[in-house]
Amino acid sequence: MSKKSTLAAPIDMSGGFKDFFDTIGLTSEGLVTKGIAAVIGVIAIKMLLQLSNDPKTALRKGSMAVGTLFVALVLALYGDTLFSTVTNPKS
User: Which positions, given as ranges, span the membrane (predicted)?
Assistant: First the structure.
């Protein structure tokens, strides 16, 4: 009853991390922008958790935290496209 089935084709990973990131579709620039977006996202969540009881101050700090979270989201989704014009200039 034991029937072998292959879930995925074998991939040569002898090149180390470069081969791994190539298989998931991330370049080194993409990895850096995802890391920066993650750090900015953590900072935004920390800002949201430190809101005060004063409504005026909480509204101001909360809106800044939501804006920071939006920047992190845009950077995570489109960061490689945004920075590709900086890292690979067209001649």
Answer: 31-49, 61-79
Structure tokens at 24: 């998931």
At 67-82, the pLDDT tens digits run 999 998 888 888 777 7
Place of tokens 């920047």: 71
Report which of 43, 90, 35, 51 is spatially closest to residue 69, judged by C-alpha positions.
43
| CA 87 remoteness from chain centre | 18
Q: Is 44 exposed, middle or buried (0-12, 13-18, 19+ CB in 10 A)?
A: buried
pTM of the complete model: 0.60
How far apart (Å, rounded) are the C-alpha atoms in residues 65 and 61?
6
